[in-house]
Specification:
The protein is α/β, with parallel strands linked by helices. The protein contains eight helices and ten strands. The model is unreliable at 216-224 (pLDDT under 50).
Length: 228
């Protein structure tokens, strides 16, 4: 890839969480990051944030070498907005893309933490999304979990991060001996840094695919109504 891209520039979007964000990275260094207004919908704020980020650093969309997106899991609508935006931009400019799962993006925020770290996101109703990491490597793939059952098979002394870690902190402390808690944020800069590492390994794609680990509420209601 080094022959293809000189000082490669990555535009990364994150939209699976409550606050969307946009980041620009050049040659492994974050140039800027724009956090969107959380009181407005991602569909209202994401593309204006892209335009602002480009304007701040004096770039055009055509200057971007690789587009990256937070592919979820998370808000179904948010994931679709970010993934569709990145795929559309990349297709229009004939550029590659990189999809980064939101659990890895959380871990990138705190990857210097020692020991086993479980990233836990709250999917409500006692359900969640989880993945485990150790020494900057994923040791358990992202999965949809029943939180109480997941905690019962989690090793003592495991660290927890992500929104689900704090939403279920009391339960975690009851079930997992010596559990530790570390705050992390889901931000486009973390997506950009993970995308940079993958670009260095020539790990790019033509299309980002959303990471849906469970059916949406609308799909579940449809199945209930139709007896599936």
């Amino acid at each position: 890839w080094i022959e293809e891209f000189i000082m490669p520039i990555i535009l990364a979007l994150s939209s699976s969480g409550s606050t969307a964000s946009v980041s620009l990275l050049r040659d492994g260094e974050i140039l800027t990051e724009i956090l969107c207004d959380h009181e407005k919908t991602h569909s209202e704020t994401l593309m204006p944030a892209v335009e602002k980020a480009l304007r701040v650093v004096g770039l055009k969309a055509a200057d971007i070498d690789v587009f990256a997106a937070d592919a979820g899991p998370g808000s179904f609508t948010g994931v679709r907005i970010g993934v569709c935006a990145v795929n559309a931009l990349a297709a229009a400019l004939n550029k590659p893309v990189i999809g980064v799962d939101s659990l890895t993006a959380h871990y990138r925020d705190i990857e210097e933490s020692a020991g086993t770290m479980a990233v836990l996101l709250d999917a409500r109703g006692g359900r969640g999304y989880a993945a485990k990491f150790m020494n900057s490597k994923m040791i358990e793939e992202p999965s949809a979990v029943d939180i109480e059952e997941y905690l019962k098979v989690t090793e003592p002394g495991t660290g927890f991060t992500g929104g689900g870690a704090f939403a279920y902190k009391k339960l975690i402390m009851q079930i997992v001996p010596d559990a530790a808690f570390v705050k992390s944020e889901l931000r486009a800069s973390n997506v950009a840094m993970e995308a940079w590492d993958r670009l260095c390994q020539n790990d790019t794609e033509r299309v980002v695919k959303p990471l849906y680990l469970r059916a949406s509420q609308a799909e579940r209601m449809y199945d209930i109504r139709h007896g599936n």
